[in-house]
Design brief:
Low-confidence stretches: none
CATH class of one domain: Alpha Beta
Helix content: 10-25%
Largest sheet: 7 strands, antiparallel
Structural class: alpha+beta
Strand content: 35-45%
Radius of gyration: 15 Å
Shape: globular
Mean pLDDT: 93
CATH architecture of one domain: 2-Layer Sandwich
Strand order of the largest sheet: 1-7-6-5-4-3-2
CATH superfamily of one domain: START domain
CATH topology of one domain: Alpha-D-Glucose-1,6-Bisphosphate, Chain A, domain 4
Distance between the termini: 40 Å
Number of helices: 3
């Protein structure tokens, strides 16, 4: 059965600034990792059909639920659609031996201009069943909070 997780947040910046942060390697490494993780991008090709490979490392690996290893989640992301200041669609595949993490998850970052800035709505479709819903939604919300802090600070 297909599962969809969502989160949204208003960010005090225009859609163009938020869109830039979605497509800048250094920015992604700063804001995308959720609380308790850090991220390193190993491959970067920011265009439709391109993508990136990110290694997410748990800061406190003891007892961490890593998908690739005890301390890491490795994800290959393809850019399926890029619409400036409007939408970024990513297809993410986790490296994992556990089949409950298999499959391609589609992450859509929709940007909507609002009075206070930009409403960013993240929709994750076809979420692998091994990913806990509450933890995933908390992780997306954490990434959105980091994105807001980053964009609002750097403009």
């Amino acid at each position: 059965m297909s599962r969809t997780d969502r989160a949204d947040r208003v960010i005090g910046a225009p859609p163009a600034a938020v869109y830039r942060a979605l497509l800048e390697r250094e920015s992604l490494e700063v804001w995308l990792p959720p609380d308790g993780m850090r991220g390193t991008i190993e491959r970067w090709d920011p265009r439709p059909g391109g993508g990136f490979r990110m290694v997410l490392t748990y800061l406190a690996p003891s007892g961490s639920p890593g998908k690739t290893s005890d301390a890491t989640d490795v994800v290959d992301v393809a850019f399926a659609d890029l619409v400036p200041a409007e939408r970024v669609v990513q297809r993410a595949v986790f490296e994992a031996d556990d089949p409950s993490y298999a499959g391609t998850m589609t992450m859509t970052w929709h940007l909507e201009e609002v009075v206070d800035g930009t409403r960013v709505t993240v929709t994750a479709e076809d979420v692998p069943p091994g990913i806990d819903r509450a933890a995933h939604e908390a992780g997306i919300a954490s990434s959105l909070a980091h994105l807001a802090a980053h964009v609002e600070r750097t403009g």
